[in-house]
Amino acid sequence: MLSMLKTRLVALLHVSFVNVTQPESTPFHRFVLYPNTDSRFLRALSNVQATMGIAPSTGAEDVEMVGEAAPEEGLPAVVLSQIDETHQTLSAARKKRKTSPGYSSPADVKTFTATHTIPSLHSSSPSGITSLALSRASPSQFLTGGNDKIVQLYDRSSDKVLASLKGHTKKINHVTFREREGDPTLLISAGADKIAKIWSYDAASQECIPKSTLRNHKGELTGLATHPTSTILALSSTDKTYSFHDLTNFTQIFRSQPSEESFTSLSIHPDGTLLALGTPTSTIQIYDVRTGAIAAALSPPDGTPFTVNTLSFSENGYHLASPDSLSSISVWDLRKQKITSTIALGDGFKVNKVVYDLSAQFLGVAGNLGARVFAHKSWDELVRLEEGGELADLAFGDQGMEIWGVTGREVRIWGRPT
């Protein structure tokens, strides 16, 4: 029976990979089967017609979305179709994709040095930037969230704050953009106050219009991501659930059954079919986005329990990076279902963020002693970025030509020497 369930788990994880030969199965360092996994798996596969029956909201005003309904059994059929179509398109493109001309090489990254600092962002009381997101559509623009409960949109080319967005009552934990050709750019934040806020940004007028406040969770929001479809928002919470929201009408379209543990971080697979969630007990839970069924629970083999506060799928879809202690990180190979590499950062290092670049060549780690960037596969340390001290967040810029980080009230940028 155990062998049959392991085979099913491999099949579920394998759907996100295209024409990949599955190696001989190797057990997870800790393999957990939940009592209801089998029934939920079969039920989810046989019933994908669930719908919400909630009328879409319209208008330009901020709409309060409060979700007190019971957790849903599955995503609406139209959303499942969008996910499947996106998965097929992205998987096919990823198989053929090569690193674009002009993209930074490991040799380039080794030369990175501090090139620019943007000081005095957000309020000085309480001070501190907590989160960062870079625009792909407009590479000079970035979004920050702070301890001061404010979300700021900044333009580097003009050195000007384009918007200071209020509405949260506690610190901002995460910010992100939703950028989709033909649709307005959405600025999205999630906070310790249990809410997510969404604004629509018009580049021509530089006006931000409040669109929605999501109050569906009863605990602090610890994870925020835009799904590859660009029509779905994912949230995770300390209330032991995660949820999906439609970014066309801002309604909740799925909320998970409560887990046994709180969720402390979130990452979506680049093809959009898998969801990884961290917990405060060292475990990473992986779910099938389309069914809500849990696929696996992964944990480092030994050690003192710690909070998995950050996760990052590689862009090639094969690897998942995460802390495996307070001061080291591991890379899971999802095809082999095991940790393939562990990088020790030193006893004094505290991990705040792990992030892959879009080419899957580099893995960045931010922490209390600055940042370090490693070459994927060889895990050679390419560069240390220590100016400014602790980095709360880290991001790779366009074409991997820059690395951005936040420290205190500053945004720092590293790149090739000028």
Question: Which terms summarize this structure?
Answer:
418 residues, mainly beta, Methylamine Dehydrogenase, Chain H, five-stranded mixed beta sheet, four-stranded antiparallel beta sheet, 29 strands, disordered N terminus
Identify the CATH architecture: 7 Propeller
Range of strand content: 35-45%
Number of separate structural domains: 1
Top CATH class:
Mainly Beta
Strand numbers in spatial order across the main sheet: 1-10-9-8-7
- Work out the number of β strands: 29
Query: Globular, elongated, flat, extended or rod-shaped: what is the shape?
Result: globular
The class by helix and strand makeup works out as mainly beta
Structure characterization notes:
With 418 residues, the chain is mainly β. It has a single domain (105-415), classed as Methylamine Dehydrogenase, Chain H (7 Propeller), CATH 2.130.10.10. The protein has helices at residues 2-14, 37-46, 77-96, 106-110; strands spanning 63-65, 113-118, 129-134, 141-146, 151-155, 160-165, 172-178, 185-191, 196-202, 207-214, 221-226, 232-237, 242-246, 252-255, 265-268, 274-278, 284-288, 294-298, 312-313, 319-325, 328-333, 338-344, 351-356, 362-367, 370-375, 381-385, 393-396, 402-407, 410-415. The chain has a five-stranded mixed sheet with strand order 1-10-9-8-7, with no helix packed on it. Strands 2-29-28-27 form a four-stranded antiparallel sheet, with no helix packed on it. A four-stranded antiparallel sheet has the order 3-4-5-6, with no helix packed on it. The termini are far apart. The relative contact order is 0.16. Mean pLDDT is 86; it is low at 1-10 and 12-59.
